[in-house]
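Hi L., both proteins are below.
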Amino acid sequence: MKAGSWKLPAGMALGLAGGFLLRPVIVTDRGEFRLFASQGGGAAAGSEELAGKSESRASGNRSAGSPLARLSSGDAVTDVRDLIASFEGIRSETQLNPMELIRRIYLLTQLRESEVLDVLASLSKAEDSIRGAEFAEMARICVLTRLAELNGPEAMRLIHSGDLASIWDGSEDTASLMVMNSWVAADPEGAKHWFEAGMKQLDQEELRDLMENDDFRQAYYDGMAKHDPEALAREVGDDSDPDKRDEVMVALVRNAKAPEELVELLDRCIGVYDARTEAIEKLSKADPTIAAAWVETQAVDNARDHDIEDVALVMLDRDTERGIEWYMAQEFADAEREEDRLSKIIYHLAKEDLDRAVEWLESQPDDATRDSAEISMAYQVKGRGWSERLRWLVRVGDVDRRNEALKTMFRSEWEREGGRLPDHVIEAAEEAGMGDAARSYKPE
């Protein structure tokens, strides 16, 4: 790799930062709810308590010669600007010191509330070259999520009040998601109080827009599922609002660890499409045998059809023969799924052993359900020549689909050969009874 040709990817920087952004903070007594308003009481008390602990960021328990002390200037605004400059200055792997970057990022987790507000105000007034820098956005999010830990309502207020509009530049929804993720992890009870009160005040336009954001609600429910899944589960029943029920169940599924938990949740996900889909996908990867057993207990309907495919694809990857046996034994509500099933099996077999794929398809009943698989096979045997490809294509019973696939194959060859079909292609087409189509072919 040539020096000067490499730049630290934003994703890598975010990955380095990710482990240091969330620190549990206990804050109690949130007080009366006010829309996007900073609240005193517990928030202020919690901030002061943490502020006292964070005094050691430049002194105290941290020795003057420690790496963190050497990196900190003692001024939060300067530290954040130095962090951005550190990221932006890296142009070669020879300049990368991951541990130094991690230590600089860790300094952000030590900020007091007053320092966070100073940093955000400074960034909002910074020249465009700094504010628009690639890693300035990461620094803003890091600082904002630190504020969410210390004072969630104030973080929400700053996003939506317009006070620091230049910072967000139209990305308020994304910032709100990040704040909720951090807030609910640090202070779940405070976030719950704010969220539930907000859901009762949807007559306020700005609050309504936020609460109607699916991703924002999901961020809240995902956080609460980690905090107290049993309490969250009690919030919904069969008669609950369908959207809320789906979002809560999705959050519980994402938080579930053991296959047994997922089976229990699946039993509650009947009629809840998104949650059921996530649950069966997760259970299939954890233990496809348990997932298959659960699917077999369900009534034959479209939802079960979808479950069958999710389970079968995992089983095919782990044990092809067993996967085929189970997949072929399943009954579908939608007859078209039977054709899809053959095509998926052929695609999987052909990747492992083309001869085995040919043998298996030849053994299946020669009816309309084979059409998709035969088209797939015409592509899978490409390396065996045009005669073999067209031998499979001519078997397709649906004339329109057969002709469409033939045109696609011809077009690829036409383009590869610079605007013509080679003689051997036309000869193979003649043998397959498709000579007229080959001789007259021109791309549409």
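That was the first. Here is the second:
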Amino acid sequence: MKGVQIMDKSEAKLILASHTMGPEPLDDSQFVEAKRLAKDDPELMEWWEASKRFDAGMAKKLNDLKTPEDLRASLLATVESGSRRRVITRKVYRYLSMAASLVLIGYIYSAFIVDRSDDYTGPLLERAYAYSVDGPRLDYFSKDSSDLVSWLTEEGFELPPNLPPKLLAQEGIGCRRLNWSESTVAILCFNAEEVYHLYIANKTEFAEFEVVENFEYEEREKGWTISKWEKDDFVYILAAKSTPLNMSSMLANYTP
């Protein structure tokens, strides 16, 4: 049985980041709870309000730009999507190359067109750590962790048959497919007082990934801990702003 989890600030921020423009989804219980938490947390509310002001301001600037209608529509659609998905088409590049202001090109390109989630480089472990610290952009949200597994499967990601049961018993946050080095990596986020980021990839696509026989817990800056292992032809990375002891408890009754 999954215990009742209280949404924390990190989870609320992930959800609110996807709702900075457009009408509020009042039928979404997770959003309603995130907004309630923001009302009780001045810092979180100010961050969300600032994000909404920024996106609204940029949307107005885009509307004012004298650009071809289909380019403007593409940029605005990117902003209003909430997750700011990547919009990469030959037409967009052609129009941007014709723009007069290089500063504006860079600003629009950086802020609206590119979802940088797929642009992380370096060894898989370092990518996963950096992406976790920066705050991942998730594509699907659910408090039911089994929904996260189902969504990734429906999206065509082959998940291993056995995942850490203690993690799956936690409240879900969300998930996403990442494309790193032309390989697909799944990320699943769980709420266990701290946010746990679980990355899964097929080990044939990351031959350089080195692991040891038993779990190792590496402490990083600002209270972060990471662990890695392999099992069932997959490689795994777990990252959280947590202690090694707490992280090890999340992997109890699970053997690599």
